């Protein structure tokens, strides 16, 4: 299967650079049975969910993962924190005009320095000093398609209102539309919620570099499912109620566990599951998601769930209708 099948023309002006008021975004509805699309507002989701539906959300919290500094030579360096492997030691993505060697010193300002300790595939192992400064020294890791520096408001805006567990380098963006009031409204209606955790890794920024979809390999991402969440999801499936995944990250955890264990189980682990056409969904019954980059693994997942022709037609219609795309953009509900 050729990656270029998932390309689509997108005017740059439709890439959202700032969010609208949370909960006021547009919502494209896609009936995956008929392929029919309809246009609503996000607040209309309350009327599309019914008592007994189980909404599963990802409560990961975005860390201040982007660090800027200089090498001893004066050359600029940019780090993206990925995973802490020991106190003060992180695996990082690193950008510089010339790749630093093991032992190279990095100066990150504000009294924070670092030393490159080695590499693990495409990640650098970097030791920071003082170790306890690194989590506060960085910037909000806005995606590269947001063509502006982070602003103070992004500290809250690029975070779901239910974010709880530090660990992501990108927001689970389908959740950015929810407000506390909207969640309360859904609860009053009888819509249940369960929270799982998947820490979004740098793979979300990485393009698919293979020509064939099947040749791409996903970065592994860490997840956790509590006993309460596992029980809620298993009960919903046993009772024939809809499991509504909020976002592709949630979908990947649910389908990974169902494939590996035959159902949802509590515990921690990591997943490198790559969902694309031909995948058989066994847990997720409906999907709330944002609009994703052309040729990305995320649009491939959406097309696997909604159907290829349905999804690509819906994307083209969203472009014609002037929807706002990507992290700070509008949403899509596939049922």
Question: Any idea what the CATH architecture of the largest domain is?
Answer: 3-Layer(aba) Sandwich
Task: Report helical residue fraction.
Answer: 10-25%
Low-confidence stretches: none
Radius of gyration in whole Å, from Cα? 20 Å
Q: Provide the CATH top-level class of the largest domain.
A: Alpha Beta
* Overall average residue pLDDT: 96
Can you walk through the features of this model?
There is one protein chain. The chain has helices at about 45-50, 135, 155, 180-190, 225-240, 250-260, 295-305, 310-320; strands at about 25-30, 35-40, 55-60, 60, 65-70, 75-85, 90-95, 105, 115-120, 125-130, 165-170, 190-200, 220-225, 245, 265-270, 285-290, 330-335. It is α/β, with parallel strands linked by helices. The protein folds into 2 domains: about 5-60 and about 155-335, QueA-like (3-Layer(aba) Sandwich), CATH 3.40.1780.10; about 65-135, Thrombin, subunit H (Beta Barrel). β6 (about 75-85) and β7 (about 90-95) form a beta hairpin. α7 (about 295-305) crosses α8.
């Amino acid at each position: 299967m050729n990656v270029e099948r998932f390309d689509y023309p997108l005017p740059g002006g439709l890439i959202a650079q700032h969010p609208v008021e949370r909960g006021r975004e547009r919502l494209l509805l896609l009936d995956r049975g008929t392929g029919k699309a309809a246009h609503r507002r996000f607040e209309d989701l309350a009327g599309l969910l019914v008592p007994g539906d189980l909404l599963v959300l990802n409560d990961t919290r975005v860390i201040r993962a982007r660090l800027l500094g200089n090498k001893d030579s004066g050359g600029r360096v940019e780090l993206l924190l990925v995973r802490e492997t020991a106190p003060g030691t992180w695996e990082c993505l690193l950008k510089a005009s010339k790749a630093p060697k093991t032992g190279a010193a990095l100066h990150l300002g504000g009294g924070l320095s670092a030393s490159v300790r080695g590499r693990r595939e495409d990640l650098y192992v970097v030791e920071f000093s003082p170790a306890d400064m690194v989590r506060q020294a960085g910037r909000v890791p806005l995606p590269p398609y947001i063509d502006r520096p982070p602003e103070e408001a992004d500290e809250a805006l690029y975070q779901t209102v239910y974010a709880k567990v530090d660990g992501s380098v990108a927001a689970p963006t389908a959740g950015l539309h929810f407000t506390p009031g909207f969640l309360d409204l859904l609860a009053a209606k009888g819509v249940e919620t369960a929270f799982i955790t998947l820490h979004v890794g740098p793979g979300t920024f990485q393009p698919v570099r293979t020509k064939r979809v099947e040749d791409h390999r996903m970065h592994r991402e860490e997840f956790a499912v509590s006993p309460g969440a596992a029980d809620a999801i298993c009960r919903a499936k046993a009772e024939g109620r809809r499991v509504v995944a909020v976002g592709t990250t949630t979908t990947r955890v649910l389908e990974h566990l169902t494939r590996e264990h035959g159902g949802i189980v509590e515990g921690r682990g990591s997943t490198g599951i790559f969902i694309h056409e031909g995948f058989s969904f066994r847990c997720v019954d409906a999907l709330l998601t944002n609009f994703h980059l052309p040729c990305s693994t995320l649009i491939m997942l959406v097309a696997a769930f909604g159907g290829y022709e349905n999804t690509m037609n819906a994307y083209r219609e969203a472009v014609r209708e002037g929807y706002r795309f990507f992290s700070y953009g509008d949403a899509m509900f596939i049922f």
